[in-house]
Amino acid sequence: MEEKNYKDINYNEVIVHVNDVSKAFGDLKVLQNVDLKLFNGENLVVLGRSGTGKSVLIKLISGLLKPDSGVINVLGEQVNQLNDKELRELRLKIGFSFQNSALYDSMTVRENLEFPLVRNKRNLTRAQINQEVEDVLDGVGLLRTINQMPSELSGGQRKRIGIARTLILRPDIMMYDEPTAGLDPLTCLDINSLINEVQERYKTSSIIITHDLACAKMVGDRVAMLLDGKFERVGKFSEIFDTEDERVKPFYDYNFIV
Fold this sequence. Notes:
By secondary structure, this protein is an alpha/beta fold. It has helices at 54-61, 84-91, 109-120, 126-139, 155-167, 185-202, 213-219, 237-240, 249-255; strands at residues 10-25, 28-40, 43-47, 69-74, 77-78, 94-97, 173-177, 205-210, 222-227, 230-235.
């Protein structure tokens, strides 16, 4: 598996800037004075063991949590200074792909995709809604499932539909939370390929939360490794693991990528 080399990134335009941010829950210091940038068009992987604060980070970026200190800027907006209305507007520009795909079991695939579209774009005609749904399903390669129920789909298909449901609002930023969790190795490869296809087709900037090194290597233009509440190592995949740091080596050895 080759290291990713995607060239259509604007390293002069910062989409997300996490600046000197700390977050604790009681005596538990989760993030300590962290700094991180997401550039326009980039897939940035946030890598780390379970419980290291990866999911806390994306909740801070989206304004679901407030930092104890520091500044978070997203698409030119200082998140911790926004009111509720402004936060809702910002979140429409951020797409979340959750571990469990976040599909409604009682709705067909079509209805699952229509729901966020109709809720947030009330002036669309039925023809426009149909076209948007069909376009985004075609984009994830599952147009044929449009009238199926989530229970009739495989885990990989549900993951793809979950991504389609996120993409239908055409977000500027995608947030993937453990996109390959619970999937078999071949389906993981399919989802990783889809994340790269989404980047190219929809021109998104993405943060991918994972502890899967195969995912990190395949989709990450850069990788940020969270160690002891800080981003100690940020760079290309090969740069991250070119180290004798005993906090990093066991992580690589366990995943064992050739």
